[in-house]
Amino acid sequence: MSKALIPTYDICSLAMGMPASEDILVARFSDYLAAHRDIHFPHRHSFYHLAFFTAGGGSHTIDFERFPVKAGQLYFMVPGQVHSWFFEGNIEGYVMNVSAGFFNAFLQDPAYVERFPFFSGVSAEGVVQLPKAAVPAVMALFESMLKEMAGTAIYSLDMLRLLVLEMFIQVSRGNRKELAKQEPPHNYVLLRNFRKLVDQHYMQLRLPKEYAALLYVTPNYLNAFCRHMLGKSAGEIIRDRILLEAKRLLINVDMTIAAIAYQLNFADNSYFTKFFKKYAGVTPEEFRKNIS
């Protein structure tokens, strides 16, 4: 595959011969891999993507962070994340592709799914190792989803919505850290809103005080809050988002370093190179060479 462009897949393009749906696909992982043999190369999705491994090994890279694949592991990815994998042994498990709007027929809050901690868009937070005792229940839910996908029973999409939400809730209940259990709900709302604002405005707004104003809190409060929730300052979170986008753009070899610096709103190419090397440890050119 040429790295001139990272492919972005929609659900219909990965339909595997099933009835085309713009909203959901559930399949066994071995069938999914057999139908899409080149999909291990770096790519993005326009939908939420979930991989659940029950056997096999190897590695899975999400936004340039590599994770070892283990049985009982789930990977939750949000639209736009770049990922690739290298598997070892016979991979078994399940895969789910689901659109952001799939639940809108059920839920009044269109952002409901974003409340789950594994859909933060931060790679490490989207990797969940299930306790061994929890694996059979999650497998049973996936098996029920496969039956609904294959059948033509009335209300099959509604039943799928229920099964998917039940799985999200069970996984979330079983894998929240003890500290997270003690946090009041409004803290998660503030954190989610801050991350969403950063994702929307990181090219233009670079200072914590600019986001604090949008959130109606003081800069000192925002920094203290981020350190409490994530162990990082607000400035680090903004910086990390800029760095992530720079890495995503550097995969596209049709863009010059100068063009990337301009797109990310750096004053000049030299400033961008200094920024990237300081926080990534290599120059943009070296990073591009290492991933080619």
Automatic annotation (TrEMBL):
Keywords: DNA-binding, Transcription, Transcription regulation. InterPro entries: AraC-bd, Homeodomain-like_sf, HTH-like, HTH_AraC, RmlC-like_jellyroll, Tscrpt_reg_AraC-type_HTH. The keyword Transcription regulation applies. Residues 192-290 form the HTH araC/xylS-type domain. It holds the Pfam family AraC_binding. This is Helix-turn-helix domain-containing protein. The lineage of its organism: Bacteria, Pseudomonadati, Bacteroidota, Chitinophagia, Chitinophagales.
